[in-house]
Amino acid sequence: MEILIPLFGMATGVIIPIAVFIWQYHENKGKREAAIEISKHLDDASKIDELIAIFDARKKEPIDYRRNGVITFFVGLGLYLFGYVWLGIVFEGIGLLVGTIGIGTLIAGYLYPNTGKELTDAVEKFEKR
Questions:
Q1: Is the pLDDT of residue 33 over 80?
Q2: Alpha-carbon distance 18 to 26, whole Å?
Q3: pTM to 2 decimal places
Q4: Which of 88, 91, 116, 128 is most buried per CB count within 10 Å?
Q5: Where are the domains of the chain?
Q6: Is 56 in a helix, a strand, or coil?
Q7: pLDDT digits 0-9 by tens, 59-104
Q8: How would you label 86-124 residue by residue, b for 16+ Cβ within 10 Å and e otherwise?
């Protein structure tokens, strides 16, 4: 009976990545099949390219570090308060670490502009000097 917990712990390290792989495969399987069915009925190659672009789920926008920094900071604050009230010093330390990472991400968002308008404004401001 004592051996079951370590075995389950080791098996979890293998089972979770395999489960995620299978889940991703099945999630995208329907998209691939739909694209193949639709492309069979299309004669124009440009329409097929548009179809592939529609199914492409990746975001085209840059990452907003300021938004992510604020979210991470408040997650860290919540962990800190949770540790302070209930679980103790370990969660306080984790909360401080996560909050500090959030502050760093927030500062990075202001130091490195990421949208086209922000980059254009930064270049114009530099050229005025």
A1: no
A2: 12
A3: 0.45
A4: 91
A5: 4-55, 65-128
A6: coil
A7: 566 677 788 888 888 888 888 888 888 888 888 888 888 888 888 8
A8: eeeeebbebbeebbeebeebbeebeeebeeeeeeeeeee
